[in-house]
Design brief:
Blueprint (H helix, E strand, L loop, with lengths): L3 E5 L3 H13 L3 E5 L2 H11 L3 E5 L7 H10 L8 E5 L4 H10 L3 E4 L4 H19 L7 E4 L2 E4 L4 E4 L2 E3 L3 H11 L6 E2 H9 L7 H15 L9 E4 L3 E4 L5
Parallel strand pairs: 1-2, 1-3, 3-4, 4-5
Antiparallel strand pairs: 6-7, 7-8, 8-9, 10-12, 11-12
Helix pairs in contact: 1-5, 2-3, 4-8, 6-7, 6-8
């Protein structure tokens, strides 16, 4: 079945370029030029992935991302944000709101395509019926890989797809330090210089959701200069 991508940008030339590349790769493309229209398309069409500009009329990309992540029927849709803002703080805001990845304008359309393919590949792997059914447990954490569900002390906790992939990688290797590149490969399918800040933001978001005290984490431990590991004392 053809996968559908929603491209949202008020710059129609960007929409046209991305549409051409995506259609050449055999994706079906939906488009919107403002945040309000994007939400209507999302709720009506339920696309497989969204490429979302930040600065748009009516509702900006940050607000649209918040709405997507707070709506259970839409929350699992992967989001790639397009931003003309190069400041790290602006990129981090999008990731903290639940975006899976970001691309800075001006961009190479081939790079965007690589990000799209990688995220969709992760979705397919997560949903594969051949995946071994199992649950990962550490202390009060219980990650059900089949149901794509995390509970913390029996309470369900919503995760973005990238957060879920990161937590799965850490829980699958308790006590083992995963390098930053290893975690990026497992979470988003690739690693490149400059994405480390994005990883730190995803880890910070995870800690807020699972740690009793996010400022003094006991589950996700930092190994300075190397990466992160899942503590084993809680088992």
């Amino acid at each position: 079945m053809t996968q559908r991508i929603l491209v949202v940008d008020d710059d129609k030339s960007i929409v046209k370029i991305l549409t051409a590349y995506l259609e050449q790769a055999a994706y079906q493309v939906l488009t919107a030029n403002d945040g309000e229209t994007a939400l209507h398309v999302l709720r009506r069409e339920r696309p497989d992935l969204v490429i979302l500009d930040i600065m748009m009329p009516k509702r900006d990309g940050w607000e649209v991302t918040q709405i997507i992540r707070s709506d259970k029927s839409l929350a699992s849709i992967p989001i790639i944000m397009l931003t003309a803002r190069i400041e790290d703080a602006d990129k981090i805001v999008g990731l903290e709101l639940g975006a899976d990845d970001y691309v800075t304008k001006p961009f190479n359309p081939r790079e965007v395509m690589a990000r799209v393919k990688s995220l969709l590949r992760r979705v397919r792997l997560d949903q594969s019926p051949n995946a071994a059914p199992h649950v990962l447990v550490c202390g009060g954490l219980r990650l059900d890989l089949d149901q794509h569900l995390l509970t913390v002390e029996t309470e369900p906790v919503e995760l973005t797809r990238t957060e879920f992939n990161l937590l799965e990688a850490l829980l699958s290797n308790p006590g083992y330090t995963l390098t930053r590149d290893e975690l990026l490969e497992k979470a988003v399918g690739y690693a490149y210089e400059g994405l480390g800040r994005a990883l730190d933001t995803h880890i910070r978001n995870l800690r807020r959701k699972i740690e009793p005290d996010p400022d003094n984490p006991t589950y996700i431990q930092t190994v300075y200069g190397v990466g992160y590991r899942m503590g084993v004392k809680q088992n």
